[in-house]
């Protein structure tokens, strides 16, 4: 059984989009995997600048590019008709197409036919593999860190990516493990955990972070929230299957309620730590919290410093804003962690 | 959005099966919904006796039967070829076919064509509806009881069915709500929760027990186990979405480990109670345990009495074997329950 896997290097395709906020996937790929992004293809009129050389599909092929990655959010979730000539050309040249949209690529007849001819793959990163295991709970070799959150959309993915970067810089062996579509595009592999049938969630999480070297860290992207009225099942399965040695709680400064569920006050960071340990002990008795990462983008630099210092005093844990301060304080604590 | 729904009354079809243990679904339907089972159709040579009159498909149609229910477990999960004449005849006469097998009924061309012609439905009770909601966590009217377990296969379904029966006899308004395939066949509706995509598990559970009269009880069939290394995500989503006022812990006397996961000792009943309350409080602060139902089939009658009495002393809760002693002691406690 396998995770979703992409072939690098990439051509980032952004259609006619000019607004950076609608091209977050493409921008994220360039931000975190610059070395795998060789070219940018945009339709005439687009002013979007990803800092990559413009390339046609033919130039991409000549440059050794193996996948065209659709790097925009699509209004309505569908592939626009005026993209089809370009996508078909890419497929016929043997490039895989990678997308995270609602409509299935293989349901578009022109692309399916072209893929059958060239042998290229049409990869929907929202679609999990057809066959997944049931979780065994068996101890795997290597170490694991999971990011968890007080809510959705509080920085679990970017915290994990920054941890991977900082851990590698500190000389640790670390690999980001993606559990959502944008993460999968960035990592080049992974499993869209929230799209997995519930019986197989913890099994999928086991597949996502397999046996590894004893001193290797998988840094696993969390999903949902253990106190989330809609998504806690996903969080539970990912936690139990990941059997993390360590976890980092992600939070957004100033958020008071579960976003979109205004009847539900946000859990405290302490409550998330306690509950995560309680549940995580099922598959890893040594699970421990190694820090907190707060999205402080609503605060000034002064306020951020005070907020993080106060929080660190309160919790007795390193508290960072992964994207503003980095995660070195957490990595230092990880280095001291004794793992059985 | 709707649950899976069946049309009664039923013709129970058991092919050439003669072994009662392989016809549990059919037997369960007769046991719990005798009034909906008008006839039995078996192939020549079968000695299986469900206590129903034998009927051909044509006789069933004439008797007003609306669905043919496949009441056997299938080795390999496939519909045998020698069933197709009978199933096709039933479909052409307008009877729905109801099955809980791995192969999709609609993928069998003869049946799909016949259904297109007659307008009958091919209902796979393992297949959840295509569109399900995300859980809202909003309080619904009416009362809910959920059966939970120390493990899988400890009597959660039959305890819920016995509770429904005993509650109705005691004058309470009660409806069994099915979350698994056999339960759905018995209830005539429900949702196969373990086959739902993880993002929608708690939403599916909400759909399963909608708003109701203030004094009405939904008695919801539990799934998995909150300490189960494979299936805890299903249990979590069902618990959070069900927002139960009351729960009953199901257990099997003598079981020491999670069945099939021998590295995992069975949790104590106390641990299951504590954890279920802790998690259930997210969507119902008043959640409380009202009793325990133990499968004591490995014990003698004397041993059973002592086992249940000792357990009741230990826990301070009514403890029954739902199928051997009934659940009146639990129903009595339910009657005294104050629900906000």
Automatic annotation (TrEMBL), chains A, B:
UniProt domain D-glutamate N-acetyltransferase-like C-terminal: residue ranges? 134-331
- Pfam family for this entry, one: DUF1611
Record domain D-glutamate N-acetyltransferase-like N-terminal: where: 50-128
Give me the segments passing through the membrane. none
Gene3D superfamilies per the record?
A: NAD(P)-binding Rossmann-like Domain, P-loop containing nucleotide triphosphate hydrolases
Give the signal peptide range: none
Could you name the domain of life of the organism this protein comes from? Bacteria
Q: What is this protein called?
A: DUF1611 domain-containing protein
Species classification: Bacteria, Pseudomonadati, Pseudomonadota, Alphaproteobacteria, Kordiimonadales
